[in-house]
Design a protein that fits this description.
single chain, Rossmann fold, 8-stranded mixed sheet, about 35% helix, about 20% strand
Length: about 230
């Protein structure tokens, strides 16, 4: 069954306009989906309907992505603040967060900053905030659906994270499901293991489909996520 998806915008923090999609029953528990670098709310289409059977599912375009504002300032902490501002603007006292890749890093920062706001956390192929060998980003040809200046600002923070971010994982109180893409993911198993070790109530499952689990195996991803969120 295909559900109606509404498209809205909301203004947060210093006047940043965020675009988002919302699907599911108005009285369902809130779930916020955060996409990977360069992706938008539409990236969650393969799993959105299933996740929204009994939940009010919000999918966000982060700043610099899709239909959200493309301001001149970008950072992962600003994206974290945008998520908290989004929850405030919609009157959501608590929500579940589902984050993919960069979106999962933002989800961790959010859950560490205000632990009482996040009920449960699902992290899809998300690295621990550890230094990694930087690779210079190459701009794709043609018109982009995201701000290239955002990539140039955020990638160095993913490559050389603030050391406090690793320590702050201990502040997360939400039960957390870490979903790893297995051998074909570009993320090192040691990074995933460190993430699980650092978050106090984290459990790990491997769905061996590489980095794009929810797109490659939407049925298996939604089965795991919905079972965890319903617990």
């Amino acid at each position: 069954m295909t559900r109606t998806t509404e498209h809205h915008t909301v203004t947060v923090n210093d006047g940043v306009r965020l675009a988002y999609e919302v699907t599911g029953p108005a009285d369902g528990p809130a779930v916020l989906l955060l996409p990977a670098l360069g992706e938008s709310a539409a990236d969650w289409a393969p799993v959105r309907d299933e996740l929204s059977r009994e939940r009010r599912v919000y999918a966000l375009d982060p700043r610099g992505h899709g239909a959200s504002a493309w301001p001149s300032t970008y950072s992962l902490p600003l994206m974290r603040d945008d998520v908290l501002g989004f929850l405030d603007a919609l009157g959501l006292a608590r929500a579940d967060l589902v984050g993919h890749s960069m979106g999962g890093v933002v989800a961790c920062l959010t859950a560490a900053a205000q632990p009482h706001r996040i009920r449960r956390l699902v992290l899809e192929d998300v690295p621990a905030p550890l230094p990694r060998e930087p690779v210079a980003p190459v701009r794709p040809e043609g018109e982009l659906a995201f701000d290239w200046a955002m990539v140039l600002a955020v990638r160095p923070q993913l490559d050389s994270p603030d050391p406090a971010w690793l320590a702050d994982l201990a502040r997360i109180t939400a039960p957390t499901l870490v979903v790893y893409g297995g051998p074909t993911s570009h993320l090192a198993p040691a990074s995933i293991d460190e993430l699980v070790r650092r978050i106090p109530d984290a459990r790990l499952i491997t769905l061996p489909y590489g980095h794009l689990i929810h797109a490659t195996a939407p049925g298996e991803f939604t089965a795991a996520a919905t079972a965890f969120l319903a617990a």
